[in-house]
Specification:
Archaeosine Trna-guanine Transglycosylase, Chain: A, domain 4, Rossmann fold, 42% helix, 27 strands, alpha/beta, five-stranded parallel β-sheet, single chain, 5 domains, elongated, 29 helices, five-stranded mixed beta barrel
């Protein structure tokens, strides 16, 4: 595409008619003073070309705006500014299309299209050109030529084309030749055509060439760096392979080769499932071919180390000895016989299944000793009426029969839940691993992180299996009730796959990316309450409740377990410290108030440390500690029996409450004063407890005459109910009876007995409904010095769960209605109730 020397002078250009056929040109902008080869094959354009050749051979070359425009481009599909082109050469191809060479004559604008059929005919006008001679134009021309040299070198253009640009004298011709040669975007080329002055055209060409040179130089630099990197990598690979060959000849190995060989040796010694072995083989092959400098090398090495360190199929294989298990549980834990019986039942089932699964199946009743028929086989109807033997499933093959419940030990802190798990592991001869779930709020803590992330590790379950080093440990999931969901997922949902016997045989950790069998693991969960455990997770577990200990049980636990343990911990020999029973009882009564024995153990530890200090200072042994010496060793008592002191006037009743830490005694105070008739409730009461107070007040007011309450006791009176320890939230329906008693006591002016405590939900008609936590509440009452406990009659069966010592020390009164409560609870029996119930005293046990 070179300019026509004879057409450089505008005066030598042919005359352009006002009406010109228009031929759309795709992917190209036709400039004046330049030649362009075109292929014309569209039917409408071919017809326009043939008509042009019969006349003046001039047509309007209009660039199509978008390459996606339809083949028959219309007026809206082309730019309105184009170039009048003269056909210089024409050749017809065998397929009927034309190959033409055209020369751009002058810039034109299509004012409108006179016709669109059979082809476009536009009314055109020539566009004026502003010449700007001078030094600025000369400088721009030189800049264009210099930049074109650089661009041509980057693009690999022939030297002849560079020379033709240097030979042109017309600045306009130089700019248009550069515009047709370099790969400028189509809109930018159209912009060059629409510029109407020499200086502006040259500046635009300079701008476009600078952009093109910057892109070209960047591409060249990237290609050079890539080529250099590939060359270096190939060279390093060749040298590394040569180095391996030399080291093999010398009997030496590179560190990475030795590492891969060590992994392969570990793989040969590990019994992996087929799927896991294929994955490990694939990753190990990648490691052997990879350079240690690769970022993936360390990730694959860590992954292989985790996979090969897991106990694939390694089990302890020890038989379960029930006698030994019973001895271990009795030695480690005092009392809790019900829990021990449930654990022994669980171990007996596992022992029986293991033994019978290993033994050959007995012959069917109809089979002889040698397998031949001995009796007539039981028949089941076949499709043609013939009898076919009904098969019996072999023992241990039924998937449902192999599923065992997951034990969940629930109880207050310090009652020995974790130590029970350790005892079970010791009784079974298995290894014990503990997994603390308190505060876990990320699902990835259970399932692990994908190993594509930097620093990814397996979940806690797989980590515990690696620590156990066997596939059948006893795994304790501690504090399972303290899991919490967050935006990172729900860990309780992830535990479903771990604890569900139907799924855990193929548990897939996100880091491992392959199934791992957890079906041989004995899972034991612990928690303080079942209220916060997710229902789907709780449904997969069997809850075994552990309650608090009585004072006598704490004494036995301290004597048998806690005191010997603390003597060993402080370095004291047997006989150097003696603590009598009165001292241990006083510690349990006045220095700790808890359901468990954790605080008791801390107090004994403090006494043992004091004894160790005296011995270290040269004191005589043995050191005997009695009850009177405790204030000197432990300070003043921290717990004071206050039941009698708190019940010193009418309107105060003793209720019983259940908490995750065990039972507790609750004091309820009621006062009636002049003021607006309303009920005021304080003490951080929950909605359910507030409703119980409303129901209790309504019952007392509606039955005032029957209860002996003055009918005007509540007129223009404010009833204020308060539950002390106001900073502690309280809720639940079980305080209804105590609330009713406190309000009735305030209205009657009769105090409640200080040694009476009560629990139960109350209705508007005075019925006492059953509540939960009877055992824990009774233990709390017994520990607080209460003599009489009022319980709902429908909780009579729960009384058997109360330890024998507490049952003997408590008078338990079972009631059906509120009318039966007041005669037992109040110091003076109201006259109306005394006469009504004289012949039918409440049941007591």
């Amino acid at each position: 595409m070179t300019p026509d020397p004879g057409s450089q002078a505008p005066g030598g250009a042919p005359e352009i008619p006002d009406l010109l056929p228009a031929i759309p040109v795709r992917g190209r902008v036709v400039y004046p003073l330049t030649f362009h080869p075109l292929a014309i094959g569209q039917e409408r354009s071919v017809r326009a070309l043939e008509d042009v050749m019969r006349t003046h051979r001039i047509f309007a070359a209009l660039t199509v705006r978008d390459e996606k425009a339809p083949p028959e481009a219309g007026p809206r599909d082309v730019y309105e500014i184009g170039c009048a082109a003269l056909v210089q050469q024409l050749a017809r191809a065998p397929d009927g299309t034309y190959r033409v060479v055209i020369q751009g004559i002058e810039r034109i604008r299509v004012a409108n299209f006179a016709r669109t059929d059979p082809y476009l005919i536009g009314r055109v006008e020539r566009l004026a050109w502003l010449e700007t001679p001078g030094t600025e134009t000369e400088a721009l021309v030189r800049t264009v030529r210099d930049l074109f040299h650089r661009a041509a070198a980057l693009a690999g253009l022939p030297d002849e084309l560079v020379g033709s640009v240097d030979a042109l004298a017309d600045p306009r011709a130089v700019a248009y030749l550069v515009g047709t040669t370099l790969p400028f975007p189509l809109p930018a080329r159209q912009d060059l055509l629409e510029i109407g002055d020499t200086a502006g055209l040259l500046r635009k060409v300079v701008e476009l060439m600078q952009q093109e040179i910057a892109v070209g130089e960047t591409q060249a630099r990237i290609a050079d760096e890539t080529r250099r990197e590939l060359t270096r990598a190939q060279r390093e690979a060749i040298l590394r392979e040569q180095l391996r060959t030399i080291q093999r000849e010398l009997g030496e190995e590179a560190p990475e080769a030795e590492e891969a060989r060590a992994f392969r040796e570990r793989l040969e010694k590990t019994t992996l499932p087929a799927e896991a072995r294929r994955e490990v083989e694939r990753e190990l092959s990648r490691l052997e071919r990879m350079t240690p400098a690769s970022p993936e090398y360390g990730m694959i090495r860590t992954w292989l180390d985790w996979v090969l360190a897991l106990p694939w199929g390694r089990t302890t294989g020890g038989a379960i000895d029930l006698v030994e298990a019973r001895a271990v549980l009795d030695a480690d834990h005092y009392d809790i016989d019900e829990v021990k019986e449930r654990l022994l039942d669980h171990l007996a089932v596992r022992k029986l299944r293991a033994e019978r699964a290993a033994a050959p199946a007995p012959p069917a009743p109809w089979m002889g000793p040698a397998g031949g028929p001995a009796l007539e086989a039981p028949a089941s109807p076949g499709g043609d009426g013939a009898a076919t033997p009904a098969p019996l499933p072999p023992l241990g093959t039924d998937e449902e029969s192999r599923r065992e419940p997951i034990l969940c030990l629930v109880g207050p802190p310090g009652v020995g839940k974790t130590s029970i798990g350790q005892s079970i592991a010791r009784a079974m001869g298995r290894r014990f691993v503990r997994l603390s779930l308190g505060g876990v709020h990320d699902e990835a803590e259970i399932r692990g992180h994908r190993r594509t992330y930097i620093g990814a590790i397996p979940g806690r379950v797989i980590q515990a299996m690696r620590r156990a080093e066997v596939a059948d440990p006893v795994m304790m999931l501690d504090e399972i009730d303290k899991l919490s969901a967050s935006f990172q997922g729900d860990p309780a949902a992830a535990l479903l796959e771990v604890l569900d016997p139907a799924q855990n045989q193929s548990f897939t950790d996100a880091y491992l990316g392959m199934p791992f069998d957890l079906s041989k693991v004995l899972f034991i969960c612990t928690g303080n309450t079942v209220e916060t455990i997710a229902p789907p997770l709780l449904d997969r577990m069997e809850v075994v409740a552990l309650s608090g200990y009585t004072e006598s049980e704490k004494l036995q636990i301290a004597r048998r377990h806690l005191l010997p343990k603390q003597l060993r911990a402080t370095g004291l020999r047997e006989g150097e410290l003696e603590i009598d029973d009165a001292a241990l009882r006083r510690i349990a009564r006045e220095y700790t108030r808890e359901a468990g024995v954790r605080g008791l153990e801390r107090a004994i530890s403090a006494v043992a440390r004091k004894a160790a200090r005296r011995i270290g200072e040269g004191g005589a042994t043995p050191i005997r500690v009695g009850a009177e010496a405790l204030p000197e060793l432990l300070g003043r008592p921290r717990v004071h029996p206050e039941t009698a002191e708190r019940i010193d006037r009418p309107g105060i009743a003793t209720g019983l409450a259940w908490t995750p830490a065990g039972g507790d005694v609750l004091f309820i105070e009621a006062a009636i004063m002049r003021g607006r008739p309303e009920l005021v409730l304080t003490g951080m009461l929950g909605d359910v407890m507030r409703e119980s107070a409303m129901a209790a007040l309504t019952y007392v007011r509606s039955n005032a005459e029957r209860l002996g309450v003055d009918s005007g006791a509540f007129e223009r009176r404010t009833v204020h109910v308060h539950v002390p320890a106001g900073a502690i939230p309280k809720d639940g329906p079980s305080a209804g009876v105590a609330l009713m008693t406190a309000i009735a006591s305030a209205a009657l002016g009769v105090p409640v007995r200080h040694d009476v405590a009560m629990t139960g939900e109350i209705t508007l008609r005075g019925k006492v409904l059953p509540v939960g936590g009877i055992k824990e509440k009774a233990l709390a009452a017994f520990g607080a010095g209460v003599k009489t406990v009022i319980l709902p009659r429908r909780n009579e069966e729960d009384v058997q769960d109360i330890p024998e010592e507490a049952r003997r020390g408590l008078r338990i009164v079972l009631v059906d209605s509120a009318e039966e409560v007041l005669p037992v609870a109040l110091v003076e029996r109201p006259a109306t109730l005394a006469g009504a119930k004289a012949g039918a005293p409440p049941a007591a046990s």
